[in-house]
Amino acid sequence: MNPGATTNGVVTTLAGIANVAGSMDGTGSASEFYMPQGIAVDNTGNTLYIADTGNQTIRVLKLTWTNGIPVATVSTLAGIVGTKGTIDGAGSTAQFDNPAGLTLDLTGTNLYVADTSGEVIRKVAVATGQVTTIAGIPSSPDIPTAPAPAPVSTGRTA
After folding, report:
1. Nearest CA among 28, 49, 54 for reference residue 39
2. Three-state DSSP class for 29?
3. Considering the domain 26-136 in this protein, what is its CATH number?
4. In b/e form, how buried is each residue of 30-57, taking b as 16+ CB within 10 angstroms?
């Protein structure tokens, strides 16, 4: 357990401000989130990966300890704030479409993201922020779909 952690049910806000939506990176209450929905924790317990769903980004919260007090620093690992899409790329060149569920692989090297509205599973290399689609076919208004079939005439008139 980390120094300063409690086991008596006390809840402490480490980052962000309750009921304030935003996308700022920063320390403690200087950081902001918009509809965070998924969290994955590395094996040290000091790095959290957050699906910041409303911002369309993947964020990193790093915990350090000063005199037993937790200090949380938030940064953006991948995605473009407010831009929906399913484009692969590194860091802010990648796009997400409502990322939600997260999990880390056993080595803590790769983060897997359920990109819910994009209908794909994405892999994010935590060292570089490189995003790769590994499963699914992106569901996007930018992808053309087959036209609807023409109505079939029965030869009858109304």
Report:
1. 49
2. helix
3. 2.40.10.500
4. ebbbbebbbebebeeeebbbbbbbbbbb
For residue 152, give both structure tokens.
């079939």
pTM: 0.82
Q: Residues 97-115, buried b or exposed e (16+ Cβ, 10 A)?
A: bbbbebebeeebebbbbbb
pLDDT at 7 over 90: no
Report the DSSP pairing between strands 26-27 and 47-52: unpaired
All structural domains of the chain with their residue ranges: 26-136
pLDDT one-digit tens code per residue, 52-104: 999 999 999 999 999 988 999 999 999 999 999 999 999 999 999 999 999 99
C-beta of residue 40 within 8 angstroms of C-beta of residue 104 = yes
Strands (E), the chain: 26-27, 36-41, 47-52, 57-66, 69-79, 89-90, 99-104, 110-115, 120-125, 130-136
